[in-house]
Amino acid sequence: MQNNVRPETMERITTPELAQAFIEEQVAEIRAQVGDKKVLLALSGGVDSSVVAALLIKAIGKNLYCVHVNHGLMRKGESEQVIEVFRNGLDANLTYVDATDRFLGLLEGVTDPETKRKIIGNEFIKVFDEEALKLMSEGISFLAQGTIYPDIIESDGVKAHHNVGGLPEEMKFELVEPVRLLYKDEVRVVGKALGLPDNMVYRQPFPGPGLGVRCLGAITRDRLEALRESDAILREEFAKNGLEGKVWQYFTIVPDFKTTGVKNGKRSFEWPAIIRAVNTTDAMTATVEEIPYALLHHITQRITNEVPGINRVLLDLTPKPCGTIEWE
Ligand code: XMP
User: Fold this and answer.
1) Is 136 in the pocket of ligand 1 (CB under 6 A)?
2) Type and span of the H or E element at 89
3) Distance, CA of 201 to CA of 204 (rounded, Å)
4) What local confidence, expressed as pLDDT, does residue 164 receive?
5) CB burial class (10 A; 0-12, 13-18, 19+) of residue 257?
6) Counting CB atoms within 10 angstroms of each CB, which of 9, 62, 114, 127 has the fewest?
7) Architecture in CATH for domain 214-315
8) For the chain, what is the radius of gyration of the CA atoms?
């Protein structure tokens, strides 16, 4: 049974040395907990699950079975980075599931934001469970999770066992949660000490339903692609201009309406891309980041020139409240 209470004496992990000590301690603890048994992990590529994966690989190597589900709503290059970092870089046992067609098929014609969220969430569990069932023949006894301390506080620490949704009752996994007593900033320091790339360690928050809640209304493949490309340009320009890590969350949104424009001397009828960049500490309220106008002009030019289907760029100036951070 894991200890889910952070001791008052526990030092805040702020330096590479403290991170190294934590890593060594956790590697020993993981080995003591799981021995030569096998562990399953849903690896999204977010900082928490990535740090857990890297810790477990260090402790038990190929006895960690990572499953990365690509729901087709990832940002540009994210799934590729998971494969590059974990399979190619750390020699991880990684199952990559491209479930794009399943998710986009189920989402076809669905316009209600909450229904979209439910479909994405439920299907994610279903796909992961199917992969877990396939791996059961390997004799997996543990499930690793990227639970962090704020998650424990929010759920009152009641999280002893977990049963992946579609698996038979008797197949209960014991949990392995090596970063459960850490705050987000500490997870990042540990991630850095484990050698994970900066853009993974300092990644901005990304909602579970991914680009699905930014491709407004009924998702279509071409509009989703326009969203992914415009978002990639925004992120690239923010990184080049020193805004990555400074702005809490920044992304584009593509609504499901078109406006008239002129492109290459011809009339165009295409979607706008909306820029949203906000700062917050707890996501309950948020202020709008003041992006320099020259940069906004440059981003506008790049998006309208480079992204098929986009002929306008708009800027969202709404704080939270009254606008939420996401548009759906
Ligand atoms: P809102 O839009 O409510 O977002 O101001 C606050 C923060 O939560 C994220 N968010 C989500 N995260 N699943 C998630 O995992 C969701 O369905 C979801 N909706 C919003 C959002 O990106 C922001 O950081």
Assistant:
1) no
2) none
3) 9
4) 56
5) exposed
6) 9
7) 2-Layer Sandwich (3.30)
8) 21
Residues of the chain with CATH 3.30.300.10: 214-315
The closest residue, in CA terms, to atom 20 on ligand 1 is 207
pLDDT in tens, 171-184: 679 999 999 999 99
Is the distance from the beta carbon of residue 205 to the nearest atom of ligand 1 less than 6 Å?
Answer: yes
Q: What average pLDDT does the segment 25-53 reach?
A: 97
Query: How many angstroms does the Cα of residue 126 sit away from the middle of ligand 1?
Result: 22
Q: Is 44 in the pocket of ligand 1 (CB under 6 A)?
A: no
Q: Over the stretch 291-328, which tens digit does the pLDDT of each residue have?
A: 999 999 999 999 999 999 999 999 999 999 999 999 99
> Which whole-number Å values give the CA distances from 284 to 12, 203, 243, 248, in the listed order?
25, 19, 22, 13
Q: Tokens in use for 81?
A: 């980075």
**Smallest CA separation from ligand 1 atom 19, residue:** 207
Residue 70 token pair: 């690509």
Asked if CATH classification 3.90.180.10 holds for the domain at 16-201, the reply, yes or no, is no
